[in-house]
Amino acid sequence: MSVRVEINKLVKNFEKVEALKEISLKVEEGELFGLIGPDGSGKTTLFRLITNLLVQNNGTIKVGDYDSRKDFKEIRKITGYMPGRFSLYHDLSVEENLNFYAHIFNTTLKENYHLIKDVYSQIEPFKKRKAGDLSGGMKQKLALSCALIHKPELLILDEPTTGVDAVSRKEFWELLKKMQKTGITIMVSTPYMDEASLCDRVALMQNGNLLALETPENIVNQYSGDLWQLSTSNMIKIIVDLEGVGNGIKNIFRFGEKVHITSSGIEFEELNKTIIDFLEPKGHENIIIEKVEPQIEDCFLDLMDEN
Amino acid sequence: MWPFIKKEFFHIFRDIRSMVILFGMPVAQVLLFGFAITTDIKDVDIAILDNSKDNVTMELSNKLVSSGYFILNENLKSNDEIEEAFQKGKIKEVVIFENDFAKKLKKEGRADVQLILDASEPNTANMISAYTTGIISTYSMEYIKRNQNIPVAIITETKMLYNPELKSVYMFVPGVITIILMLVSAMMTSISITREKEVGTMEAILVSPLKPIQIILGKVAPYILLSFINLIVILLLAKFVFAMPLNGSLVLLLAESILFISMALALGILISAISKSQQQAMLLSMFALLLPTILLSGFIFPIENMPVILQLISHIMPSKWFIIILKNIMLKGVGMEYFWKETLILLVMTIFFIVMSVKKFKLRLE
């Protein structure tokens, strides 16, 4: 069972901030939909509007046939919501947390154990432990179990991987993929751009605007311009040293251990010479520049830079 | 509903701070008020200026000194010495018998005693004068009985009902009950609800199919029970440590307390609805509830002595009415017919706050 979500010209203003500026998007049934964007871009607000924890100033949200304003009680029944910060009771044990959430959604752990088995079995050995004593990854799995316990048709996850180690993050996405196969519609937000490629489609948000709404492949394909990867012997102060490097270079940003440089209308030889001439006097050696294929993060940074 | 309440109990029992506030504080407050901040007097230094020196004044002086409240510091010889005696700073009161005291009492049926008090501590001075007056009037009663003749008056009789010995413990127990119930019910619930807001669990509860009234009941039910336990602890302490009587009906007392607890819980929910953090909830409870309860309810400062404006404000303090009810039940031992008005006021306030709090409690974040 799954539902589709239709958002039409959604506007939300807080006292001084326009949190969402006429956002429209559709999430298909059974889709794993990602909302990517930096802090304060409006992701959480969008989720809170869908669950009607906040009310929009304008525009409509439909979850299945339900309208978020009129039928919010129905929507809440079929929605599993995992707020940022996990919303667990730290002084209750794993089992007690789960039982509590099962209870408030009128079900029991026993009854719906099969629904959360994949997730819960990983933390079940620690079921007597207090939630506050769990690692980030385990908290996240517990929170996910709590959100799934009432067999929702729509699962909304607000930054589930924030503050969680890389291995747990990977495991978590594998779990989401598995869950998607059961037919549930999943909306997940994350500030980590590399996670975007794991979604069916992603929406890139910034300052309440929707910058892109595409499959990850299409976002990469639409990338225009050239992308170069730079490494030298002194990567620590490289960004500072590159300041004011000159024409044709659009953007410079760190990418893992390396630095990515975007340019347009400039050939490799020219770029290579410019940079080497610029960096060598500042004590850099082994300067290597190579052309690389853009990854989704590059596309996002580029899109965000344009706006 | 039960799992929700059980969860709330886990929160309380697993948090040492809550436990201390809930169970340590009532006991500490009762004992503190009872022993440390006592307004009873004991061994007060006085001086006597006996202008008559007859058998009556001698007897009266002896009564005063042997009462245990006063110590005779000095016998004065003339009015000129009074000022000096006070200036030394040790004595708090001078008792002056007029000339021919016994004679006048016999012939005219009245004689005057003058009390001069060091009023730099007004409360103590009041207390001392009341005690002295009490002893003198007891004596004059005895005198009349003994002589079996026409009534005599030494001084206008001061009648002190309900608390003849002016024991302050009788005054503070109703006050402490009120404070504790207010604190536990209003402050603890408002904090526990705002804590869920702060930690983010409220968001998850709100999106559940629970109705506002269910959420509220789940949150407050444990505190009803705990307040009740506290009430009983205070009553037991009052009875067995301070020998305070409970003259009225215990059932009535408990029933009225439940009314007051409900009112305080509703206030707590209201506070949690308007505060964003635990600290804010705590400060609001402190300043909006606790201080007025202590200051304006007549618990410490008599309402009759306040400026009119404060007297008016005190009418809207639920605690004022509750203290009146408590005193009626505990000290006077009277029944509902004597304080149905106060009960009605409290009931109206309770209903008002409950309606307000359910209305204010939103299923949204704004």
Question: Could you characterize the architecture of this molecule?
Answer:
The complex is a heterodimer of chains A (307) and B (366). Chain A is of the alpha/beta class. Chain A has two domains: 5-220, 3-Layer(aba) Sandwich (Rossmann fold), CATH 3.40.50; 223-306, Alpha-Beta Plaits (2-Layer Sandwich). In chain A, 32% of the residues lie in helices and 26% in strands. Chain A has a six-stranded mixed beta sheet, with helices on both faces. Chain A has a four-stranded antiparallel beta sheet with strand order 2-1-4-5, covered by helices on one side. In chain A, β4 (58-63) and β5 form a beta hairpin. The radius of gyration of chain A is 22 Å and the shape is globular. Chain A starts with a strand and ends with a helix. With 366 residues, chain B is an alpha/beta fold. Chain B has two domains: 2-37 and 167-360, no CATH class; 44-147, abc type-2 transporter like fold. In chain B, 66% of the residues lie in helices and 7% in strands. Chain B has 14 helices and four strands. Chain B has helices at residues 2-13, 16-36, 55-66, 80-87, 101-107, 122-147, 168-199, 201-206, 212-240, 250-274, 278-296, 308-315, 318-332, 340-360; strands spanning 44-50, 70-76, 93-97, 113-117. Chain B is elongated, with a radius of gyration of 27 Å. The two termini of chain B are 26 Å apart. Classes of the chains: A alpha/beta (307), B alpha/beta (366). The interface between A and B is medium-sized, with 32 and 22 residues.
Number of helices of chain B: 14
| Residue fraction in strands of chain A | 25-35%
Give the domain tally of chain A: 2
**CATH architecture tag of the largest domain in chain A:** 3-Layer(aba) Sandwich
Structural class of chain B: alpha/beta
Overall, the morphology of chain B is elongated
Residues in β-strands, percent of chain B: 5-15%
Subunit arrangement of the protein:
heterodimer
Mean pLDDT of chain A: 89
Task: Report the top-level CATH class of the largest domain in chain A.
Answer: Alpha Beta
Q: Determine the most extensive contact between two protein chains.
A: A-B, 32 and 22 residues
- Name the strands of the widest sheet of chain A in spatial order: 6-7-8-3-9-10
Order of SSEs of chain A, N→C? EEEHEEHEHHHEHEEEHEHEEHEH
- Termini separation of chain A comes to 38 Å
How much helical structure, as a percent, in the residues of chain A? 25-40%
- Measured distance between first and last alpha carbons of chain B: 26 Å
Overall shape of chain A: it is globular
Q: List SSEs of chain B in N-to-C order.
A: HHEHEHEHEHHHHHHHHH
Instruction: State the CATH topology of the largest domain in chain A.
Output: Rossmann fold
